[in-house]
Amino acid sequence: MTDSRTSEDATKGPNDRFERPPRYEAVVRWAEYIRDHPPEVWGPQQNAVVNGQIESAQAINLPADERKRVRSFADDVLGTEHEDAANGER
């Protein structure tokens, strides 16, 4: 994504401070939004975004070996998250 810059990529703004990447500001706005609104409001919005990402991913024709690699990675990540949750970690 074009807004996926790291702190090393950030440019100095006024007052010689580094500007935050645009994605950071969007995450802060979203966190404030879900804090201020009930899940019944933001839940369907979040579902629409996630569903759109899934549909986009499904529209890409990946070779079978690449699909298996991605699935294996996802399973590893989810397994780690489930283990962490079982141990009371976040």
From TrEMBL:
Pfam families: DUF8150. InterPro entries: DUF8150. Residues 1-22 are annotated as: Disordered. This is Uncharacterized protein. It comes from Halorubrum vacuolatum (Natronobacterium vacuolatum).
